[in-house]
Design a protein that fits this description.
- It is built from 16 helices and 14 strands.
- The chain is an alpha/beta fold and 455 residues long.
- The protein has a 5-stranded mixed sheet, sandwiched between helices. A 3-stranded antiparallel sheet has the order 9-12-11.
- The protein binds pyridoxal-5'-phosphate (PLP).
Length: 455
Amino acid sequence: MKTIIEPFRIKSVEPIRFTTRPERERLLRAANWNTFALHADDVMIDLLTDSGTSAMSAAQWGTMMTGDESYAGSPSFWRFDAAVRDLFDFVHIIPTHQGRAAEAILFSILGGAGCKVPSNTHFDTTRGNIEATGAEAVDLLVPEGHDPNDLSPFKGNIDLGRLERFMAEYADDVPCVMITVTNNAGGGQPASLENIHAAADIAHAHGKPFIIDACRFAENAHFIKHREPGQEHRSIPDIVRDMFSTADGMTMSAKKDALVNIGGWLALNDAELAMKARNRLIMTEGFPTYGGLAGRDLDAIAQGLAEVVDEDYLRYRVRTNEYLVERLDAMGVPVIKPAGGHAVFVDARTWLAHVPPLQYPGHSLACALYEAGGIRTTEIGTVMFGRRPDGSEQPAAMDLVRLAMPRRVYTQSHADYIVEVFDELRAGVAELPGYRITEEPPAMRHFTAKFEPLT
Ligand SMILES: *Cc1c(COP(=O)(O)O)cnc(C)c1O
């Protein structure tokens, strides 16, 4: 059969409130044309993020009820610990309330002024936690990762040649080498098994630990299975274990590939690092058997890890993005190819060529998607990255709009609706306005800035 159906049926539903175009125009104006300021129940299809927005399964909700809330040594913790260990064979597993808490703890120990941490591409919270200690976060992505039209299978790879040269020059200042799978900031593109192992070898040749930012490990393993020669006959758990076999630690946001709404962990092999991490955890997150989470959250993670490596789930998950990319591409909407694991990226700078970068073409498209169809997305471009510390502005490398797909939330007809909204926008795309910012904070302005269309 060619039709890939959603590998679930729906037991519990949440209504979508339908809105009209005039209503949405009014709501967006009241939100000062910032999609982050919209109330979520005024949104029909919410593609703002895939983080913490997963639909949990009946089995996960069941474990929520049997979760144990003991302060120390809860059976929920031990079920969590066993489920994590089944896929990621690390000596110390330390729960945290989400991914950035694991990063903050790790870099409070490994960071510091003068340190340099290389990665394929650091996610913004990872970069923030590294830089907050005075250290430098260095991105060494392969060149094809920067080309939206390059169809290479592993555009999330770290550039091994640059990593070798970087280590030869700066190894004394490097506390660890990292890789992010999939590469979130780079469009959800995967890293190959070969690349992950080779990066670990370079780190180890210099006596440095190799840490994986593992948020989308299952999506990455799916791409390895289907794109890397010799991997197609292996099971997803087998590939996951191989990906992590030469790593010395991991940071994880369970809000992604553990199919839960909150949670994370830090895993380490080194006993001394783990002791320091647990001491820090007790000060900032909680006792080491709950780490800022309820016992029931730990159980939901344990069950989610068993579900996320299911091949039918992963095929459906990745296929949704491929389908959107194929349909948009066929319509002449410029998109980043190949499709990433968790999101579809539209190249708004190319599509809205009449809007200069400093009038925010990505932002303009995000506003138009909401007005035309009640679809909420986010700009990843000059609004997000264009402001320099001195307050001046420069165009970002690209002006993209991200359609991030929540896990197991939307169905095929929602995808078709998204395509139809793009189709409707097509005719009038040359008339979409640029925007100006009327009010902005000094940093992370995309969350709270106020805008106004230029007419
Ligand atoms: C989401 C994310 C994080 C941070 O995790 P939170 O749970 O949001 O704190 C870190 N790295 C990557 C690659 C992510 O996608």
